[in-house]
Each structure stands twice: as C-alpha cells, then as structure tokens.
Design goal:
The structure holds two protein chains of two kinds.
Chain A: H1 2-24, H2 27-61, H3 66-101, H4 105-108, E1 111-119, E2 125-128, E3 141-143, E4 149-156, E5 161-165, E6 172-177, E7 182-190, E8 193-200, E9 210-213, E10 225-233, E11 240-247, E12 256-260
Antiparallel strand pairs in A: 1-2, 1-12, 2-5, 3-4, 3-12, 4-5, 6-7, 6-9, 7-8, 8-11, 9-10, 10-11
Chain B: H1 2-21, H2 35-46, H3 53-67, H4 75-100
Helix pairs in contact in B: 1-3, 2-3, 3-4
The chains are: A alpha+beta, B mainly alpha.
Chain lengths: 263, 110
C-alpha cells in the first residue's frame, strides 16, 4: 500500500515536472508545430469534405425558404434598379476618387494569403497555414477579400498561426457606426457572436447600421467591416446602450484569408 | 495494454482532426458536438471499475485537446485525469457496487 502510494506520488511529480519543462521551453511550440505540419494534409481533406457536405445539407434544409427569398430578392432588385440610376451620375466622380485613393486591399495594405486548416476545439480560434517563416507576427489583423475583419494573430508557430476571432470572449476593440460615427467597443460573446458596448445613450442607432473599425485603439486599421446592428438593448437606468452585432465574417464559408503585414 | 494505448492514440488523433476540421461545419447555433468528450464519458461509464482504460483515454484526449487549443500543454490532461479519477472513485464506492454486486450483476448474468 505504502509502496503504491510512493510510486503514484513519484509518477505524479515527474509528470507535472515534465509539463512544466515542456511549457517553459520552446519545446511546446515545436511539438504543436510538428503535429500541425503532419496533420495539415488530413485536416485540409477533412475541411474540404466538411465544407462540401455542409453546403449540400444546407441546400436541402433551406429549400422551403427559397420561394420567400425569391420574392424578397425581386422587390429588392426593383429598389436597386432605381438606386442604380441615381448612382450612375456619381460613377465618374467615384472612379476618379478610386484612382486617387485605391480601393483594392492589395493597394491599401501589404497582405499575405493564407488558408484555414481547422477551428479550435474550444471555439473562436482558428488555425491558418502561415507562420513565422512567412513573416507573420503576433497581433497582425486578419481580413477576407471583402475587407471584412475576422480577427488577429494570437500565437505564431514556425509554419502555422493561431488566430483569435472577433467573437472570442477575450477580444475587445474600438469601433464605430459608419453612418453617424457613434463610437463604442466591440466585444466577443463566444460561439461566433459579438456585441457593441459603451455607446452613449443619446446616440440614435438602428437595426442594420454598419459597424467598422477605428484606428484609435491601435489594434486594427481604420474602416474594416465588422458587422451590422441586429438587436438594440437600451435601458434608461444605464449610462450606455448595447447592441448585438450580426458579424459579416463567416468562418465556415471563408477558406481564404489575408493577413495584413504592414500594420 | 500497450496495444490498447497505441490504438487509442491513433483513434483520438484522427478524431481530433475530424472534430476540428469536419464537424465544425455542422454547428447548431454555434455549438458543435464534442466527440472527444462523448467517447471519454462513454469509456468511463461503460468499462469495469477495475479497468484503467479511461485514465489512458483521458491523458491521450487531454494531450490532443491541448495541442489543438490555445491552452498550455497539460491543462486538459490534468483536468481530464482529475475528473476521471474522481468519477471512478465515486462510481466504485457509491454506485458501481450496486450494479456489479453478485445479486444484481447485470453484466455477468448471461
């Protein structure tokens, strides 16, 4: 009995010492990088297959909604046609401005293309296939082709990087409503959900307002798309109002992401 | 035993890849079923109280879980081990003897 206890205690101490040694040295990063490297082809296969299967099932389950969607799109199309006419007059002016400012993200930022390999088990982290060997550094912003902000680099390995998504509970950054420049903080709620906090009570906000990043926090560049206001929570007894955000990023549909390397 | 451990390592390696790259596409309202946890719980509750498979499964699951999450290596191993040992003690002392007692032995009655 006594011998067994001593044996268990020795094994436990050795095990804990091993864990400490592993985490206090670069060995942990090497281990993770090695396993990611060997798993990359299999994960890529699983990711592609999962994407195909989920698209197939989504199309089956959403078949009944297609008719309603078609009617809605028809009405929206008519509105857009009329808007298009008025926008044509601004086209020439816009084109000259585009030439001056440059609208492509490649012109605006130095970017690095990367692919998603997997989503973290605990959620709201993703693994991408670019690491320190490609020049990736911690806190670099991640966007998609439509300039929608997805997150920032949290941990860099030799060939891979972990990205903390905007929806992670640890994620907090400055943003504003593009229409009326109402400033606030975007916070992650977990499970790919976000909310907009610390907006002054007197500011009028409405459902569908677009939220973009500001450079005041120094975390992200100005003007990256975040999401739109979905549900406003306004209470007279509170100093600030809050709102749930419907994020523009959809990790399941975004296979290609861009790392902004010059911010 | 070594053979079992080897099988567990291979099984859970592929399972974690399946979990992180395939199952994430099928979330329901942001929630994805956690196969690793389900299999750990099944192993824990379905094996005999004297078996130690659940302990090995907890270590292997914890290790792969740590690799594919943003915690330090060892975090989920320690949590898994602690929970498995705790539940094993509870099952052995308070619940399992009733099921495995000779009078009500459901497992060996046939």
């Amino acid at each position: 009995m006594r011998y067994s206890l001593v044996k268990t205690a020795i094994i436990s101490v050795l095990f804990i010492a091993f864990i400490f040694a592993l985490n206090l040295t670069p060995l942990a990063k090497w281990t993770k990088n090695f396993i990611y490297s060997t798993s990359c082809p299999i994960q890529g296969f699983f990711w592609e297959t999962g994407d195909t299967f989920s698209d197939f099932f989504k199309s089956i389950f959403s078949a009944k909604d297609i008719k309603q969607e078609l009617d809605r799109v028809k009405i929206e199309n008519q509105k857009l046609v009329s808007e298009n006419l008025s926008l044509k007059s601004l086209k020439n002016e816009n084109e000259s401005l585009r030439q001056a400012v440059g609208n492509d993200i490649q012109k605006e930022f130095q970017i690095l293309l990367s692919h998603i390999i997997g989503i973290d088990v605990s959620g709201d982290f993703i693994l991408i296939n670019k690491g320190s060997r490609d020049g990736v550094l911690e806190n670099m912003p991640i966007i998609n082709a439509q300039k929608v902000l997805c997150g920032r680099i949290n941990n860099v390995y030799a060939n891979f990087s972990k990205v903390i998504l905007l929806s992670n509970k640890k994620s907090v950054f400055d943003a504003k409503i593009s229409e009326n420049a109402t400033f606030g903080l975007v916070k992650g709620k977990g499970n790919f959900k976000l909310f907009f906090d610390l907006m002054p009570q007197e500011k009028e906000i409405k459902k569908g307002d677009i939220i973009v990043t500001t450079s005041s926090g120094g975390i992200f560049p100005e003007g990256l798309l975040v999401g739109e206001i979905e549900k406003i929570q306004k209470k007279d007894v509170e100093l600030f109002q809050k709102a749930d955000i419907k994020p523009f990023f959809n990790i399941q549909e975004a296979n290609e992401l861009f790392i902004i390397t010059n911010y | 035993m070594t053979k079992n451990i080897f099988i567990f390592i291979i099984l859970f390696y592929f399972l974690i890849l399946f979990q992180t790259s395939f199952l994430v596409h099928f979330n329901i309202n942001g929630w994805t079923p956690n196969l690793i946890l389900i299999i750990l719980i099944l192993t824990l509750f379905l094996e005999k109280p004297t078996n130690k498979n659940a302990i090995y499964v907890a270590i292997i699951c914890g290790f792969f879980w740590d690799i594919f999450s943003e915690t330090f290596i060892g975090f989920h191993i320690l949590i898994g081990l602690f929970l498995v040992i705790l539940i094993k003690i509870i099952l052995k002392k308070y619940i399992r003897p009733i099921i495995f007692s000779k009078k009500n032995n459901l497992w060996t009655s046939t």
